[in-house]
Design goal:
The protein is mainly beta. The protein has one helix and eight strands, in the order βββαβββββ. The protein has a seven-stranded mixed barrel. The longest helix has 8 residues. The protein is flat.
Amino acid sequence: FPSHDIRYSGISGYSGQSGFSGTSGISGYSGRDGQFGGASFYYQFDTRTLTTDPGQGRLNVNNVTLSSATTLTIHDDDRFLSNITSFLQTIDDSSSSIKGYAKITEEANNLNFVIYAIVGTHTDNPQHFNVPISYVSGVTTAYSNSTNVVITFTVTGDKGDQGISGFCIVTGK
């Protein structure tokens, strides 16, 4: 007989059991909402409603009812002696009717805030600025005298150029 090379295979072994799935971790908490964006400066609120220099590191508005105020008076230097003159001049350079926004927030309670639109060109006096404002939202009762506040400014872009006029084609029958 011719020799045949016969090979036999053994029986395959059993597959092992699958492992257990791990447990999912606990999801983290959502973060707090971010603050009003812009450049922030540290001041104290002055309850006087005059538009004269409120003093170094101080600001005030011209009405005890914050929603009725039309002028923000702010010293050139904040509580930490940072001079904000060039920043306020930048806001003033906007050609839009609303130059930007100012948000005044109580440092100890960030839910106690007021937002104003900056609605015109400010007056640069020696040592302070008078900024024309219009109430947007927030608290209406003035802060206590010497309350630590943070004022945050945002600037709006320049007013865009007017587009070209359209035209109309009239056809007769």
